[in-house]
Design goal:
This protein is of the alpha+beta class. The protein has 3 helices and 4 strands, in the order H-E-E-H-H-E-E. Helix 1 runs antiparallel to helix 3. The longest helix has 19 residues. 21% of the residues are buried.
Length: 112
């Protein structure tokens, strides 16, 4: 289980680092009898992705085109990263912290 948790935390950190407007602040780990929770807080807006699905049609169209739009590629990669996190962790969420929304977090829950 430790390897899965480390892989998921690394993937979440990569998602945060994929945008220069975001900066990882802390990684907190909590362990209980039933759960292991990892929370990555960062400066920047909450990642707006749906980890339950990847837009395969959009990704395929992008790859077939000659597009050099880095925003579209970032959208695809965040979707892939979100899908990977959903496979690794039992629960995944991303949310702003506080009312100002200048900080956000990714929460990963692992049941054991």
């Amino acid at each position: 289980m430790a390897q899965i948790v480390i892989l998921a935390a690394n993937e979440a950190a990569d998602l945060i680092a994929s945008d220069s407007a975001r900066q990882l602040q802390t990684i907190a780990v909590r362990y209980s009898e039933f759960n292991l929770d990892v929370e990555l807080t960062y400066r920047g807006l909450a990642i707006d992705w749906n980890p339950a699905r990847v837009d395969v049609d959009f990704a395929a169209e992008y790859l077939r085109s000659d597009a050099s739009d880095s925003g579209s590629l970032d959208r695809i990669m965040e979707g892939v990263g979100g899908a990977l996190l959903r496979r690794l962790a039992d629960k995944v969420s991303s949310a702003p912290l506080g009312a100002t929304s200048d900080h956000a977090c990714i929460r990963l829950n692992f049941q054991h």
